[in-house]
Amino acid sequence: MSRNPMVVRTVPALRRTLDGLRARKARVALVPTMGALHDGHLSLVRLARKRAEKVVVSIFVNPTQFAPTEDFGSYPRTWKADVEKLAAERVELIWHPDVKTMYPEGFATRIAPEGPAVAGLEDRFRPHFFGGVATVVGKLFAQVRPDVAIFGEKDFQQLRVVTQMARDLDLGVKVIGSRTVRERDGLAMSSRNVYLSAEERRVAPTLYKAMKRGAAGIRSGEDIAAALAAGEETIRNAGFALDYLEARHAETLAPVGSMKDGPVRMLVAARLGTTRLIDNIAV
Ligand code: PAF
User: Fold this and answer.
1) Which DSSP letter does residue 121 get?
2) How many angstroms separate the alpha carbon of residue 145 from the centre of ligand 1?
3) Sorting pLDDT into bands at 50, 70 and 90, what band is 262?
4) Do the beta carbons of residue 235 and residue 270 sit within 8 Å?
5) Which of 12, 104, 183, 260 counts the highest number of beta carbons within 10 A?
6) What is the pLDDT of residue 2?
7) How far is the CA of 41 from the centre of ligand 1 (A)?
8) Annotated active-site positions, please?
9) What percent of the chain has pLDDT over 90?
10) Cβ atoms of residues 223 and 209 within 8 Å
11) 33 lines ligand 1 (CB under 6 A)
């Protein structure tokens, strides 16, 4: 039988609970989430369990990473189901602060990440996003002081931004990326997939298929620009409004001209109706 995780909502209670968990020098892993948990999140939790004795999952829908035009208000919130899923994974602690705890009256400090955060990918379309993510993740790291933190490769630029921030600010946490979990037809799992209509859901795996075909072409010697142009056409013909399909250096996210500039990562963002999907694969 699974035991419900402790749920903590204030910083003093978090500190006390963590002191208890850290007794006998147990290592602590943090999995930051915004809830609406799916199998992709649970794979992060399972990796956390392999890397540390105690697992903390934060659930906080962070307003500062949403633009006013985005879906903060309607972002899926599935608290009861989330707790049940985390109980089944034997998670020790859920850190579930409210907005006032994270951003109290008079809050006036923000982390402004550069490097991978200004690579011209997500930041081009969501200029507010990485400042909001870096600030909230910086706070989560300061609050939980984890030994390791697990982030999904699905948000690849975010993974690079957080890794760079932890290194640059000597935060003493090892950031670990976890492989993207996919549906059987290749669609990357995402909390926002629930927004897709039945027809959009049918079309959505085109993103992954186009990237896979492009990556295979590049690996067998096709010119990167030509492979990307073919991928763009496939994605647009399937009915997406394409934001970008790019091949970048997997560490720095700098543009690459050929496999010699690698390791290479292919990244995509596109909209199907009102739903924006992102994905990426290694080339
Ligand atoms: O990837 C997410 O769910 C969020 O961006 C994160 C890392 C939890 C920060 O709010």
Assistant:
1) S
2) 17
3) confident
4) yes
5) 183
6) 67
7) 11
8) 41
9) 97
10) no
11) yes
